[in-house]
Amino acid sequence: MSGMKKRMLVVGGTGYLGQHLLQGLSDAFDLAFTYHSHLPKLLLDSIPHSLAFRVDLQTGQGLDAIAQSFGQPDFVVNCAALSIPRACEADPAASMSINVPSSLLRWLSTFSEKEYLFIHLSTDQVYEGVKSFYKEEDETKPVNVYGKSKVAAEQFIHENCSNFAILRSSIIIGPQTVSPLPKSLLIQWIDGVLLKGDEVQFFDDEFRCPIYVKDVVKIIQALTDKWVTEGKQMRLLLNAGGPDRVSRAQMAETVAHVRGYNTSLIKSTEVLSPPQIYPWISVSWLRC
User: Which residues are in the RmlD-like substrate binding domain (predicted)?
Assistant: First the structure.
């Protein structure tokens, strides 16, 4: 982009993708980001020219401060979500109120200048998962509350936003963030358990298409460039996954080969094991 930098607001900037976006796009945009409860000093120090705002996405509290200090963003990337399936199952109402960006889009509608691009992170869990390699035109039929909330979000965006790009992302993998996250990252967790030398069970009947986090950042930047360059309405729905369809067991085997661990530690099991053994699983046959 040439001339003055465009303004980008990253909603959920302290999460995994949010932090990588802020790091990867700090030279290309004037950046602001939202956080829910805790502002990591390590993150703020790494992007000193950005602005941080505490926002409650359920109520919209805190959004007006962004307008006053940062102004209207040209791009809004919504990475915020209640994304742990068991948490969504435990509180479906919270899942819907956080994952459907109603307060965010209502706030954006108050600006006199309506031209902005809304980029929303959805999930491959909007699909039923009974086949492989879904296409964007395939029917959405989620099997868990998280997937249902993301379908509702997509519908809300279609009805209330003029310019948008929705990315139905598979598992996002890659390096740790500058401010480490409290929850485990999948590949790092696999590495940690195999390093201990204990036998571990991994599902071999649930498949996903993991995507590298910096590729997601590149996709988002490409979408912003396309919207600015072409200067026309954008209403896109895209699946975002990596090239390989793999199970958890296959992911573990790959980590073991790369790191030199004993592959005999990896024991395959099925998702459809007795629920008392895996009470936190929301059963689905996911892929991208």
Answer: 7-270
